[in-house]
UniProtKB/TrEMBL annotation:
Organism (species): Rotaria magnacalcarata
The protein, known as: Tetratricopeptide repeat protein
InterPro entries: TPR-like_helical_dom_sf
Length: 63
């Protein structure tokens, strides 16, 4: 069975990651959500630039 994951799913995961990072300061959890979003974006052929930006910021703040 073929399953298409909607692009909105990736956007929601990025937003959840942003909330973890900015509101809770939980960059490890944010990174997990960004990576999940990236997988969906790659499968769908979507733009990943915003996700990589947020991922980079999270890694930078982790250290």
């Amino acid at each position: 069975m073929y399953l298409c994951i909607k692009p909105e799913s990736a956007r929601i995961l990025v937003i959840i990651g942003i909330l973890y990072a900015e509101k809770k300061g939980d960059y490890k959890s944010a990174i997990i959500f960004y990576k999940k979003a990236h997988k969906i974006q790659e499968k769908n052929g979507d733009d990943t630039s915003n996700t990589f930006t947020e991922l980079g910021i999270a890694y930078q703040n982790l250290h």
